[in-house]
Every structure is written in C-alpha cells, then in structure tokens.
Amino acid sequence: ARMLQTAYVSGAMPELMASLPISGVDGTLKRSKSQVSQGWAHLKSGTLRDSTALAGYVDSASGRRLVVVGIINHANAPAARPALEALVDWAVKEGSR
Q1: pTM of the entire structure?
Q2: Is residue 23 classed as helix, strand or coil in its secondary structure?
Q3: Where does 2-94 sit in CATH, by number?
Q4: CA dist 52 to 18, 46, 72, 80, Å?
C-alpha cells in the first residue's frame, strides 16, 4: 500500500493509472461480476500457487481516491476472490466515511 501511495504523488502517476486495468472494463478485471465497482477501480490482480491478490486505486462515491490492497494466502485462495471483490465494492460505497 505504501508503494501505491508513493507512486500516487510521483511524476509517474499518469502512466501508472493508464497501465492499470479498470474494473469491469478491461484486462483481467473485465471478468469482474461486480456492478458496483465497474469503472470505479484501477486495479491489478495476481495469482500464484496458494495466493491471490488485488491492489490499486478505487474512486469512492464521494470522490476520494483510496488505495486498496487485498492478499489471500491459502491452499484454496481462488475461492476467496469474491471477498476481494466485496472489499472493492465496500471501498466504492463506504470508503468515503
């Protein structure tokens, strides 16, 4: 999360944002089933053996941009992907409080 915060205030920010897939629109996040976060999040997903992760920026409904990082380490990590999507949905709806 700290790296994403540092990158956000750096000169590389425009290129970084342009490189991150938009939830529900492109990249691996195009498959996202969430209607709440569609178009509101610039995230990178990743999967390794026994791990799945999601990290990037979410624009909340109030206009705040939030850093979101979720990492699941477990033999059945892919089953937790809905929990990561729920985290992003929460950030869109409630992250502004």
Answers
A1: 0.87
A2: coil
A3: 3.40.710.10
A4: 23, 6, 5, 8
